[in-house]
């Protein structure tokens, strides 16, 4: 089963740039999850203020652009994982958060 | 939340952790003891301890190291009790004792540094040619996949006792043959690697088109095999056929969703709704195929099969399929790995590229092949080509033969359905002839 795990963080208090230590530990963790055949792909999430919303209603497109900021803070991250079941994805998520130090991650099954 | 619910969650969580850690735990212990069988028993002891303690204490942060520490303690106890045991064991026991009970960062690092090599040794041991193929499959799922005996039994529709016995026998064989816990040397390596790849692909295939039972596929088994393939590709990044197999499985697995209809009936490749194919798995498969070819493995049997699968994967509509290229790939595959089954597939490709009569001619040259006797796909393909040639009466007989030959219910129903279609067409043709 495939799951999308993402960490949004609080947009008003974005995650700080990870320390070199966390960065390296995360690299190792991703390597481990890849070797286990669990981590398929993943990446960072830019602040939600920078997001673009594209809407189609009544035959008209509306594009709402977030205010452009210079902020380079990493607000969150996401990962597509292939796990046997929910319990396994929970365990991988716990390990991910342990590497991060603290935080909250939402996991949703994708299909 | 109800206490009962909490307990249940904890148990499920513990089982998950145990399964995730199982292969690394056994591999690490096998290196310490030089004995896979003993390693598995020690790992079991550690798991029992976890199942006793974790519901109370919670799952420890570093669960893998926890399990390893407990298993090491058991090893020391064991070595102390069995003074007659090999001197090597005693030495190991002392070494472990000096290391102490605590999980030191050094130990973690040492463990991480060698774990890839240990896992590789474990795979080669589980797939050792001294074992019967079925035993290799069971042991690989048990030791590398972390599946319990009951789970393997469920996957293979066997009884727990059968699988348990198979694993016990396999372990006895490994012990009596004194199979060393090592990665084979250069001379032995190609044949030994072939066995590893064969075992993983057998697991995949049992999931992809189950040879027995009610369901046409058991996707969980496919997922286990794909995982093992990915793991192996990371452990042996320079072996082209490892990537070839990974590519083949990823691409085939990309079709799982499209291979069954709403009531679970099989949907054949050319009838599948390609929008339901998993694009992520396709890109992973194509990337793995690229790697295999870059490593000089374009003529490897798995890479060739992956290249054929890739031709299908690249075609957004069935009619876009490059059948001429597929025909060429099958011809190469037949050279590299002569097999009547490959010839059968080549006949199908030829019929698609150059018309059903060309396919039928090739097929009929295979009919005398003794190894195809009893192979249900021969009459099934023959029936298909006869239908295309407007010979439904003969086609019906072929489909009926095919239905009688397969052990899989879903597949039998599919061929029976085609026999009925052929019969209807034949009746129509007769009626038209009469009129």
Describe the protein.
The complex is a heterodimer of chains A (111) and B (435). With 111 residues, chain A is of the alpha+beta class. Helices cover 28% and strands 33% of the residues of chain A. Residues 1-6 and 100-110 of chain B have low confidence and may be disordered.
Class based on secondary structure composition and strand pairing of chain B:
mainly alpha
Sheet of most strands of chain B: none
> How are helices and strands ordered from N to C of chain B?
HHHHHHHHHHHHHHHHHHH
Shape of chain B: elongated
Strand percentage of chain A lies at 25-35%
Beta-strand segment tally of chain A: 6
Number of helices of chain B: 19
* Helix content estimate of chain B: over 70%
Low-confidence segments of chain A, ≥5 residues, pLDDT <50? none
The whole-angstrom Rg of chain A is 16 Å
Largest interface: A-B, 17 and 24 residues
Structural class of chain A: alpha+beta
Largest sheet of chain A: 4 strands, antiparallel
Work out the oligomeric state of the chains in this entry.
heterodimer
